[in-house]
Amino acid sequence: MGFRKGSEGPSFFDLFSQQAANLVSGAALLASILDASAQERVALRDHLHEIEHQGDEINHRIAQLVNQTFVTPFDREDLGAVASCLDDCMDFIDEAGDLIVMYGIENIPASVHSLVAEQIDIIARCADQTAHNIPALKSPLDLRDFWVELNRLENEGDLTYRRALTATFDSGADPITIIKLKDLVEVLEEATDAFENLASRIETIAVKES
């Protein structure tokens, strides 16, 4: 993975922006995996793994930068926490894609499929919001609309999660399929929760900077 270089290398904000851009790519791949054939899913999942590994590399680079920088823009703990939150979002997106492939989840009942697709769409909207707003993190007080919107999306995700669980148990599918779908629905909910954690951390930084 090539990092954007300035005279002194990429800043924290450059690296956070790269993490956020990966989330957009990851969410798009996850949506593709859901509706792809079994053969197509493997290649898409492998691509998603590559993006997740890139995210790990960026996270490691941020940790190094925290340790090597004498004066940091925010508390070191907050910088590390933002990177970790972004990484968690990517990890859950990757895990969801992996479950679809490993479990061989096919012929999803229509009532469940539409709600799983809705969960993934909420994740994609969280990712889009993050990629759009993270470059402005250097002025965290200006990001109030961002963390409010992520919290709103997480609330929407909670409702969709409960509906998806209900639809899964009411689907009439065999018990093994129900277990597989339940696992997927729960990981997608964890991804949405991870974005809420990111919002909370950014709000915390803004309070400190006010």
TrEMBL record:
Any Pfam family the entry gives: PhoU_div
Any transmembrane segments, and where?
A: none
Q: Quote the InterPro entries the UniProt record gives.
A: PhoU-like_sf, Put_Phosphate_transp_reg, UPF0111_domain
Belongs to which family? Answer: Belongs to the UPF0111 family.
Q: What is this protein called?
A: Putative phosphate transport regulator
